[in-house]
Design brief:
The structure holds 2 protein chains of 2 kinds. Chain A is built from 4 helices and 12 strands. Chain A is α+β, with helices and mostly antiparallel strands. Chain A folds into 2 domains: about 60 residues, no CATH class; about 120 residues, Immunoglobulin-like (Sandwich), CATH 2.60.40. Chain A has a 6-stranded antiparallel β-sheet. Chain A has a 6-stranded antiparallel β-sheet with strand order 3-12-11-10-5-8, with no helix packed on it. The radius of gyration of chain A is 35 Å and the shape is elongated. Chain B is globular. Chain B has a two-stranded antiparallel ribbon with strand order 1-2. By secondary structure, chain B is mainly alpha-helical. Classes of the chains: A alpha+beta, B mainly alpha.
Chain lengths: ~190, ~180
């Protein structure tokens, strides 16, 4: 690489004497820089701003994690919004069918929650294969899940409830049958 | 325990230390210990005596202004080298380096024909990142570990810079020999 002569020659280069005087005279009476109180304020406000930002992101993140999406016939079911649901069979046949088979409402859930129903059964269906994965009254969903909720209504109006225990709130999906209109209505409500 | 570089002593926990209001002695000691090395390093980057002096002066001004606390002498040396290299990069990046003058035209700089001028010329032809590592290792005699600490890079990065720098230097020296023939 470099021979000894070159190394010695390189090391023989020294800072000029004038630089020593310049540095010592300019720096000697220079007080160490004191921190300006404004610097502290700036630092504190930066930390506070970061804290606020992180908190906001955490709250939004938690909310979006805790949020459960519910769809009925491809339409999103929002809180306090009522939706009608018609059975896919004719009005004449509906009574007989209802007594024998019950009425099945297909919900599409997305999120993390524990579901339980007051009446009827839930059948959890694989969205791709349509295979039934579970049948019963309680189920914990994790991600996109198809839920067939089957209830048995008689000719008088009746109300059925599904409870959705999310991470941050509990909601009810209330299914009501109007025998005169042969119409089901669904509403989603938060349990206070 | 904290090493107070400016005053060159260690402060033990709980020990009362009365500092002299005059920094001159401490600063002079630090200057005498490192100025030549820092100056050579700055010169290899700036290729200009005045810019190298300015860079070194800025480093000591920063040293006094911020009065950093060091854990040991090595830490202090690493800080000074790092600040010098950064200051030189800064000068080069901001185009504050004075117009390049041929080494031959400056009477107080070693000429290219002299050994020290030849080394400076060779160093100047290396890319900045390899130049510092090569100068610190092969000319100043620091170990790879010390270089990685001084430049704030990993051990493998230091080795890589030295290896690539060595490769480039070989090519440069071969080209020069070919041209001479």
């Amino acid at each position: 690489m470099f021979d000894q002569k070159e190394i010695a020659a390189y090391r023989s280069i020294s800072a000029p004497d004038s630089l020593r005087d310049k540095v010592l005279s300019s720096c000697t009476n220079m007080a160490p820089k004191k921190r300006n109180p404004r610097d502290y304020m700036r630092m504190v406000s930066s930390i506070a701003a970061c804290f606020v930002l992180v908190s906001v992101l955490a709250v939004f993140g938690a909310q979006s994690y805790g949020h459960v999406s519910v769809s009925l016939s491809g339409e999103k079911l929002r809180e306090d919004q009522s939706m009608s649901y018609h059975t896919p069979i004719s009005a004449q046949a509906v009574s007989m069918y209802r007594e024998r088979e019950g009425t099945t409402v297909l919900f599409e859930f997305d999120g993390h929650a524990a579901l339980s129903v007051s009446d009827g059964d839930m059948a959890i269906v694989d969205a791709d294969t349509q295979d039934i994965l579970y049948t019963g009254t309680e189920y914990a969903i994790d991600g996109k899940t198809l839920v067939n909720w089957t209830v048995h209504a008689d000719d008088t109006a009746k109300t059925f409830e599904m409870t959705v225990h999310g991470a941050f709130k509990t909601e009810k999906i209330i299914l009501t049958y109007d025998a005169d209109e042969n119409e089901w209505s669904v509403i989603r409500k938060e349990v206070k | 325990m904290t090493f107070c570089g400016l005053h060159s002593f260690y402060i033990q926990e709980g020990q009362n230390v009365i500092l002299s209001r005059d920094n001159k002695t401490g600063l002079a000691e630090v200057y005498d210990r490192y100025a030549d090395m820092l100056y050579r390093l700055a010169l290899s980057h700036t290729q200009n005596r005045e810019d190298a002096e300015d860079a070194v002066q800025d480093v000591f001004t920063k040293y006094i202004a911020t009065s950093p606390r060091f854990t040991d002498i090595e830490h202090e040396r690493a800080w000074l080298v790092r600040v010098t290299v950064n200051r030189c990069h800064d000068l080069v990046r901001r185009g504050k380096i004075r117009m390049h003058e041929s080494l031959d035209d400056i009477t107080d700089l070693p000429s290219e024909e002299s050994a020290e001028g030849g080394v400076m010329k060779t160093l100047s032809e290396l890319p900045e990142k390899y130049r510092t590592a090569i100068a610190l290792h092969y000319l100043e005699g620091f170990s790879v570990e010390e270089i990685s600490r001084m430049l704030g890079i990993s051990l493998s990065a230091s080795k890589m810079r030295l290896s690539r720098g060595r490769e480039l230097l070989k090519n440069l020296l071969t080209d020069e020999e070919t041209n001479d023939v």
